[in-house]
Design brief:
Low-confidence stretches: 181-188
Radius of gyration: 36 Å
GO molecular function, one term: transmembrane transporter activity
Membrane topology: Multi-pass membrane protein
Number of strands: 3
Number of helices: 14
Number of domains: 3
Keywords: Cell membrane, Membrane, Transmembrane, Transmembrane helix, Transport
InterPro entries: MFS, MFS_dom, MFS_trans_sf, MFS_Transporters
Subcellular location: Cell membrane
Strand content: under 5%
CATH class of the largest domain: Mainly Alpha
Strand order of the largest sheet: 1-2-3
Largest sheet: 3 strands, antiparallel
Helix content: over 70%
Shape: globular
Amino acid sequence: MIFLINLYTLLVGISRAAYTALFNLYLKSYDIPNTVIGNATFYYSWGMAIGGFLFAGISDKIGRKKTILFTMPLYGLFGILRLLNLQWALYLYLVSFLFGFFDTSVIMPTISVIENSDEKKRLRNSNINFAIVMITGVIGYFGAGVLSERIGLYPSLNISMVLAILSVLPVLAFPNVRIKKRLIKRKNELSPSQLIMLIYYISSGALVSLAAGVFINFGNVIFYDLFSFSTAMITVVLAISQLSTAATSLFSHKLTHRYGYKLSLFLIYLSVSVLIFLMPIFMLNSYVFSIAYILRYVLINISTPLYMVFCLSYLPRQYIATYSGLSYFVNNVMRAVSAQIFTKLSVTGETDYNKLFGVTGLFYLLNTLLTLFVFYLMYKVSEQNTNSEAHKLSEKQNSKKSRPVPKAKKTFPLFRRTTHVSIHIHTPNTTTKRHYVSVFVKQGSVRRKRSDF
């Protein structure tokens, strides 16, 4: 099952990366203004947020397999329709929204890997799947560039969407698994520790998305503005970032085996926060800045599988997809907000990157403090549960001691239970006219004569 999920991730990841790399360039080739391109991306992001939330919940009822088989062909269809009638902006916005609405290529593989892995292999399988996602980005970006130079942008984009439709072939071999869950009758069905972890799962993901959205959406712009890097050089930096993340994510589970999830997450988030605050200093040298950018990319991305496995392991399995869909929705909204922040800091025509890195570092720092606070709350809840269980156990023992004990009947044993006594009366002796009584004592298998009377 894990192999099939990874194969599906590989195919749909290459398709998605290639389409993402070429679509904006395709619009540029038709002299579409940046405002229209930005609005098309805005509606696509909202469609992806709403669709991801809805289909995650629907997949709980009908299963992951049926959800993928329903959404991905429509995703490919609207991806092709998105290339037509570019002169009509409203048409482009509507199709872009529907294209994002049926895009379940990110959330479904993540949920499926977690659900189909036991606790010992869950993090390792998540890291492998995440590494495949990183590799597909590199293959998709470079492959799309080479292919578009040979056959053009429009045919290359169509081929990428055909590949997205064909990516469902491994899904046909998925088992028909449907998540059974109880009807929710009470709002407080989650335990205190589960409720804390759910709030942290949503809040931490939102803060990281708010900070990382700047680098995800505008990383190439940052390098172009600061150092006038060529397109090829920018692509090399991004490719090295993804390859480094893929390589390190394969071994990040060893970090948790040695230090645990909590300490590993805290140290990673703290390191990223410090790194971002130092970015204005690193801007003085392009090579140092590039290394710092790659290191930030690696650290924050290898923390993603750790964070997801750690949080979702606390939550009820039958609601994992619903919670993931909610987080997916919030994260996409936060990325839209980060784009607005970038726009506000660029109103003068030039982006104030000192303020941008300061604001971004603040979001990372807030996430680090939130992580530390949640770990403290989890410790207090665990301690409270332990004390409560100990109190119940002591009450149970005290109740046993307070019960009246019935008085035992007094017995006076003459011999041990293993001792048997036999008495033999002999006939009178003809000479003395006396009677003899012989007493024999048997202990175990030994029989002894004790006395004559």
